[in-house]
Amino acid sequence: MNNRWLLLLVGAAAAAVMGYLGHRLGVWPDEFERVLAAAPLQITADGERVQPIAVPPRKVRAEASVVPVRSVDLSAPIEGTVQEVLIQEGDAVTEGQLLVKLKDSRQRVLVAQAEAALNRARAALALLEAGPSPEEIAELEATLAAAQAAYDKLAQGQLPGAIAEAEAALAQAQADYRLLTRGADPLEIVEATARLELAQAQLDQARSAYNKVRNHPDIGMLPESVAMQQATAAYNAAKARLDFLQSGATPEQIASAAAAVRQAQVRLDALRQMEPLELAEAEALVHQAQAALDRLRAGARPEEIAVAQGDVDIAIAQLQDALVALAETELRAPFDGVITAVAVENGAYVTPDLPIVQLADVSAWRIETLDLTELDVAGISPGDRVEITFDALPSLRLEGRVLRIRPVGEISSVSPVAGALPQRALPLAEQMAGDIVYRVIIEP
User: Fold this and answer.
1) Which domain range does residue 124 map to?
2) Per-residue pLDDT tens for 254-304?
3) In this structure, is the dihedral angle defined by the CA atoms of residues 124, 129, 135 and 137, taken in order, positive or negative?
4) Which of 39, 68, 131, 375 is placed for a possible disulfide with 360 were both Cys, Cβ 3.0 to 4.6 Å?
5) How large is the average pLDDT for residues 300-325?
6) 19 and 8 in one domain?
7) Helix, strand or coil, per DSSP, at residue 34
C-alpha cells in the first residue's frame, strides 16, 4: 500500500515537471496533454508494473466584468474647498475640459504679486539698457560743480596771501575802533572848522550865481545848477565831520566797530587753524562726484545688464510657479471620455488622496477578471486564447486573448469592482487571511 502511494506521488511530480517544461517551451495545456498520451510512462517499483496516471484536460473558468478600455479615478491636485462642480454623471467630456474648480483667492494674489515683481524687474532692465537721462546727467554735473566750489574756497583760504589779507583787515578794523573811542584831536577840530568855513563861502558864491538864473527854463541843465549841488554836498560833509569830532561817536557806531574787529579776528584765526585734512576731504568729494558723472555718462556695464536680466528670469520663474499653483486649483479631464461617477459637491473639502471623479473611455471595451487564484494563473500567459460568454447574451460567444496579468496578487476577500483602483499589494505576512488572486486583462 505504501509503495502505491509513492508511485502516485512520483507520477504527480513527473506530470508537474513536464507541465512546467511544456509551459517553458510554449506548449498549450491541451497540447501538453496530447504529448503525455503519445508517450505513456511505465514505472516499476518492487517488480510491479503500474500504468501512468491519466491527466484530464484542464480548463480554467472565471467570472469577469466588461470594463472600458481606460478608466481613472481623479482627485484634486491640491487640498482645498470646492468652489464649483461643472459636470455630472453621464456627461461626455473632452481632454482638458474643466471638471471641478477649487477656491483660488490665495493663488490669484500670488499671481498678481509675481506679475508686479516681473514688471518691476523688466523696468529696471529697460532703464539700464536705455542709459542715463539728461536730467540725471545735469544733477550729477551740479553736484560736481558744488564740490569743486567748496574745494576752491578751501584752497584759496590756505594761500599765503589770504592770511596777510585777513591780518590787514583786522588792523583796519582795530584802527577804526580806536578812532571812535579815543576822542577828537584839537588840531583835527580846527582843521574841520576851516574846511566848514571854506565850504560855506563856496556855497554862498554858488547860491548867488544860481539866483541869477533860477528863472531860466532850463535851470537844471545850466552850470550854475550843478555848481550849487556840489557846493551844498561839500558843505554838508564838512559840517558832519566837524559835528562828529566835536560830539564823538555814538554807542551804535562804537558797537559796530567792535563787531567788525571780532569778525576780522575770527576770520584770521580760522585761516591760521585750518587743517590740510579738510582740503583733502573736499578734494575727495570732487573726485567722487567726477567718477559718478563719468559712470553715468558711460552707461550700464554688461555685468549690470546681466544681473538685471537674471532678475527678470527669476521673476518669470516665480510667475510660472504662481501660475502652476493657480492651475492646480482646477481638475481637468486627462482624455476624452464619459463621467461615470461624481463623489463631490460645492463647498466640500478635498485632498489629493481622495478620488472625487471617475472618468472612463468608452470608445473600446475589455474584459477584466479578479477571479483567478495563484494556482489558476500559474498556467496562463499573455497571448493565451480565451473563450468569452455573457450571462445577458447566452447565444453570444467571442474569442479573446490574454492581454496582460498583473504581477502582484491581491487578497481574495476584497470584492472586485469593475473599473475601481487595484487593491494595495500586501506583504506576505498580511496575505495569510485568504487566497491570493491575480487581475487578468483580456482583449476581446
Assistant:
1) 106-131+301-327
2) 788 788 888 888 877 776 666 565 667 888 888 888 888 887 777 778 888
3) positive
4) 68
5) 93
6) yes
7) helix
